[in-house]
Amino acid sequence: MPVTLYTLVGLKIYLQENGPPINNMDAQAILLISNQHPNDGYLYAGEWLMPAFKKSLAILGLSAISMSCFAVSTQCTSKEFTLQLLGSGGPISDDMRASSGELIWWKGKPRVLIDAGGGTFLRFGQAGAHLEDVDFIGISHFHTDHSADLPAILKNSVFFSQEKDIDIAGPNGSDDFPSLTQFMHRMFAPGTGAFSYLAGMFDGSDGVNIKVHLTNVDYHLTTPTQVFDKDGLKVSAIGIPHGNVPNLAYRVDTADGSIVISADQNGSNPAFINFAKGADILLLPAAITEDADAVSKFLHGTPSAMAKLAKASAPKMVVLNHFMGKSLVEKDQTLAIFKQYYNGPVYAGRDLSCFPVVAPTQGE
Predict the structure, then answer these.
(1) Domain locations along the chain
(2) Pairwise CA distance, residues 95 & 92, whole Å
(3) Would residue 207 be called left, alpha or beta, if left means φ above 0 and alpha means ψ between -120 and 50 degrees?
(4) In 3D, which of 180, 179, 132 has the Cα closest to residue 153?
(5) pLDDT tens sequence across 129-185
(6) Residue 1, SS3?
(7) Contact 30/63 with Cβ under 8 angstroms?
(8) Which of 76, 136, 229, 341 has the fewest CB atoms nearer than 10 Å to its CB?
(9) Which residue(s) pair with 164 in the sheet?
(10) CATH code for 81-356?
(11) Distance of CA 294 to the CA centre of its chain
(12) 3-state class (DSSP) for residue 357
């Protein structure tokens, strides 16, 4: 019978009874290493310890685990065309996950960033990404768990050696939410913005070595809006329903394949199916469980609703993220529901996990 030897902000790590004591560094090491095993279970609410960790603890001992945490890579092995999750959680801090954010690596560089929720600034650096290499940033919507770290990430531009142009897209506004342009001016406008000392990003002046080009996307449209097209890299966006929140999904297309990233959605927009059709990777949210209340279902799709989207759009692979609270505890049930509808591989993502697009062999 396992016993709790360490508890950290609602997360409990269980070891075998009579095992060695565990200290703060060991716990942090285990958490870091857990991010490298997206196909193993998540350590939450004291359910169980990952098989990889049991083996490591038995063979190496805790002191070796602590030392190895600095050797574990947080970077993708393949960066030719790869989805990397910066944050796989939501707005709940004790899930031990950063909020939503995704990098698209292409030809060795992080060319696209989608969303920048709380914690993604740290994960961006851990991924080995540099803002100098990013050409496009897409914000799905202006909830904090999708946009709070955008100012911190853009601040990196003051350290550039030369000016860089970055395209940024986001939804147009509503009575309750700003458009992308309004958000950026509320953050950075000269004299009035919260971070007005970075106002130079609008024209590349005052030591801020980026020039941002902003696009508001009409989330009411039922056809995609192209928001970026450069050097064979194309990005399009379409509105998806997240209650009454202006909200977008993004599709990244290259000669190497396609990746579709859905932020929070309840699954009720049939136009999303065609938008995501045939993607190599489809990222879908797993924010709630099947028995969620009506308010939650107005904002988010149940596992079966998301699984039906996967079945209809037929991607080669599905990756789940935006786990939060109960959906994280019941992750295995969510995966089982997906497999009732969708026949392809389904992965439960975690922070810094990497999912490369596998190019077809010649003749296929």
Answers:
(1) 3-68, 81-356
(2) 6
(3) left
(4) 132
(5) 999 999 999 999 999 999 999 999 999 998 988 899 999 999 999 999 999 999 999
(6) coil
(7) no
(8) 229
(9) 210
(10) 3.60.15.10
(11) 25
(12) coil
